[in-house]
Design a protein that fits this description.
- The chain has 163 residues and is mostly helical.
- It has a single domain (2-120), classed as D-Maltodextrin-Binding Protein, domain 2 (3-Layer(aba) Sandwich), CATH 3.40.190.170.
- Helices cover 62% and strands 2% of the residues.
- The chain has seven helices and two strands, in the order H-H-H-E-H-H-E-H-H.
- The protein is globular, with a radius of gyration of 19 Å.
- The model is unreliable at 55-61 (pLDDT under 50).
Length: 163
Amino acid sequence: MALASFNAMGMNAVPMAFSEVYPALEIKALDGYEHPVVDMYANKMYEVAEVPDHHQPCLHARPVALIASEKWWSGLTPAQQQAVQQSAEKARTLQRSEELRQAGEVVAQLQSHGMQVGEMPAAELEKIALRCSRVIDKNQATVGQEFAQSFYAALASYRNTKR
């Protein structure tokens, strides 16, 4: 999905082993790469990434799904299901807040090493969303229509609470 999304945005995205990214940036075989800023900093990508990274940390608090088999889930009692659900929600909240906190700290570090970090204009984000929506529509059958719809409904609900 990520590869198809980047290509839909007009990039020539290539999958690559992470261990090959730094040397590929260093010899200019790649123009840039996409990764959370915490990972960029930890791997010293500012040493070789000359293309400014126009980045919004909120976009990199990636959704993480807790997935279990139907067989396993249905084998749990309702109380156990509730405990798993509550634990997953607590872990999600902690993970997201921690990722955003770390990203905020690291952006300043990247800038101190000469990387240009800025916010993507809303109009550009809308263009990206439009192009990526085609990829999402094409792949909904693979991830499941019901899952995709519930994911986007939850996302819309979250965004409405932030306004």
